[in-house]
Design goal:
Strand 23 and strand 24 form a beta hairpin. Helix content is 19%, strand content 29%. It has a 6-stranded mixed β-sheet, with no helix packed on it. With 423 residues, it is of the alpha/beta class. It is elongated and about 90 Å long. The protein binds adenosine monophosphate and magnesium ion.
Length: 423
């Protein structure tokens, strides 16, 4: 006979843990413990793509440097434009981009000008060539209706001298390379990339290429982690698969923490195996957070191994990704010195029924698409079990459901987090 302490029926309270903290609390506690890297690298512009600026970037001059034409046409003084009737002008020269017209333009005169050419002395307005009537090679007629200063780019209208163009902590993207080039900067100081070591734990895990015995599975977590980390442009140290025993785990933790700023493990945080991880982390450092009211995802471990930050993620492949996006990603961003890149979340119409009980935060997998009215909508990917990794593969966003939410009906509005999209 079963003892009355052994439960034979699942109960709805199994999902709840009064000691679990909320996702937002956990994220804040985690961020408060992260110290950004301080070492910097001096890199060429090309090398600095997807790195974090360790300096402000200040322009020493105006861009554009000279007021110039935004059109191919004729440059003249705006005060000399035709008022009530069309008027003729003498064309006294040509200004090209890179080859300015150096003379002075007086009343009744204009200069043929190309896009990007500096405005000649005495001009401030361009009439586009389609709006000019050629009378001879050296004479044009303009009609009324033009405005002073039209079709001209003012000096400094993009970047003014002494302005801060990019701030310390900025994540450098394609346009930033162009902006820095436009102010003549060829090298910048960026933070060293964080070094991130990770390994999978589990006696059942095999590497791709090995034969599977009964109950064995291929280690997929290291591949998803590799992918997510590569997209963050960090330095990756893949330490493979480690068996669930104290000796191997202890060695792996030592190797990982001595080489990395952050260590991520997957698996081995549930009851039973958990004791090994917990014991080793407590030997080498301390555990800060254990239980978070989140599905899929609980339990996760956050702590430190010496000076190295540690995340022990669950083994379930979906949980690895959802906990990564909620906790590890913001931690890595803080670690890498970033100031301004939070994942984009948006409110959209949900077309699926989503089952959920109040009491914990849930990340369901969603597919964002446009409906016939051009409205952004989200539907669920189908089965939401934490072992259904194909649900992540089909999804292009997470549907974030607050602790208090007790289910969603089609037509309700939900918050979604598109993958790899940042503010
Ligand atoms: P654990 O957290 O170790 O209890 O693992 C929870 C579930 O995730 C188990 O079904 C494991 O077999 C599975 N799992 C753990 N690690 C991995 C991995 N690296 N790749 C794929 N599945 C895993
Ligand atoms: Mg395991």
């Amino acid at each position: 006979m079963l003892s009355d302490k052994v439960k034979t029926q699942a109960s709805c309270t199994d999902d709840f843990d009064s000691e679990a903290i909320t996702v937002e609390d956990a994220r804040q506690q985690i961020l408060a413990k992260i110290t950004p890297v301080i070492a910097t690298d001096k890199l060429t512009l090309h090398q600095s793509l997807n790195r974090v600026l360790a300096q402000d970037v200040i322009s020493t001059f105006n861009v554009p440097g000279h007021t110039n034409s935004a059109m191919d046409g004729y440059a003249l003084s705006g005060d000399d434009l035709p008022e009530s009737t069309p008027r003729q002008y003498g064309v006294i020269g040509t200004a090209f981009a890179g080859r300015p017209y150096k003379g002075q333009i007086n009343s009744g005169q204009c200069v043929r000008i190309m896009t990007g050419a500096a405005m000649p002395a005495g001009t401030d307005t361009v009439v586009m060539q389609e709006h000019a009537e050629n009378i001879t090679d050296t004479e044009i007629r303009l009609s009324t209706g033009h405005k002073k200063y039209q079709n001209v780019r003012q000096a400094g209208e993009d970047i003014s001298k002494d302005s801060t163009v990019l701030k310390i902590g900025h994540y450098i993207q394609a346009a930033d390379l162009g902006v820095m080039a436009s102010i003549g900067i060829g090298q910048v100081n960026v933070y060293r990339r964080p070094r991130i070591a990770f390994f999978s734990t589990g006696d059942e895990l095999r590497s791709v290429g090995d034969k599977l015995g009964i109950g064995d599975i291929y280690d997929s977590n290291r591949y998803t982690l590799h992918g997510m980390l590569c997209q963050l442009n960090v330095e990756i140290i893949d330490l493979g698969i480690v068996k669930d025993n104290l000796k191997d785990l202890r060695e792996a933790f030592k190797a990982a923490s001595s080489n990395a700023d952050l260590v991520i493990t997957t698996g081995g945080v549930s009851v039973g195996e958990a004791d090994f991880v917990k014991q080793i982390v407590e030997e080498m450092g301390e555990i800060h957070i254990w239980k978070i009211a989140m599905k899929p995802g609980r339990p996760i471990t956050f702590g430190r191994l010496g000076n190295t930050t540690f995340f022990g993620l669950p083994g379930n492949p979906v949980s690895v990704m959802t906990t990564f996006y909620q906790f590890v990603l913001p931690a890595i961003q803080r670690l890498s010195g970033q100031a301004d890149r939070s994942p984009l979340t948006i409110r959209v119409l949900c077309t699926s029924e989503l089952r959920k009980r109040a009491g914990r935060f849930e990340c369901q997998r969603g597919i964002l698409s446009l409906n016939e009215a051009g409205q952004l909508t989200v539907c669920a990917t189908g089965k939401q079990g934490s072992g259904i990794l194909t649900s992540m593969s089909r999804a292009n966003c997470l549907i974030l459901l607050a602790e208090t939410c007790d289910g969603i009906q089609p037509g309700d509005t939900v918050t979604v987090q598109p993958f790899n999209t940042y503010l």
